Amino acid sequence: MESILDHVIAKYNYWIYVVLMMIGFYAMIGKRNLVKKLLGMNIFQTAIILFFISTGAKKGGSIPILDKYAALQGQVDVNQVVNPLPHVLMLTAIVVGVSVTGVALAVMQRIYRKYGTLEEDEILHKIENE
Amino acid sequence: MKPLALLATLITGALLLYGTADFAAWGDPQSPPNRNISVRYVEEAVKETHVPNIVTAVLGDYRGYDTMFELVVIYSAGMAVMGILRRRED
Question: Is the Cβ of A114 closer than 8 Å to some Cβ of chain B?
Fold first, then answer.
């Protein structure tokens, strides 16, 4: 029991991301409103981005901006600088996420223009009665 | 519908929490993502590019084409939004 608790405390960041991700997942599959589904997708995305960023964290590490002259002479302690690669890759992921959100919002606006509602069951009902 | 969604969420969440047992502890400098390729970037990026900010060096120099073609992603998204939202003139 003691070891399980230590285990949870050492990795509580992953537990937070899993909870966040499941909030987003439930919003995507359990809600009927299209805007709520999109919000759920964004929460899901945020959880994944936070997870990747946290894999690059180092205890006591500073930001990955180096003193140029010290770095040119090779006087950089790798353990004192956080891992920059997850930051770069998540920048790319954020750009893609913004594009997807924009297109999804446009599609929703088009759906609203045609059916006058964003509730999934009402839209299906209107499609069946056409 | 909703109880089923809740059940699926709980099962997926439990599986993911079970999976966290194999991850490295938070802030561990010797964890696999911090031990392998990123060491080379931190040590050599300034010598190779003369950019003190490593994130900028990787984004603009090592992954320059990736960043450039990200513009294509944004451009396609903008074109798609314009095409979707345009009203027909009839």
Answer: no
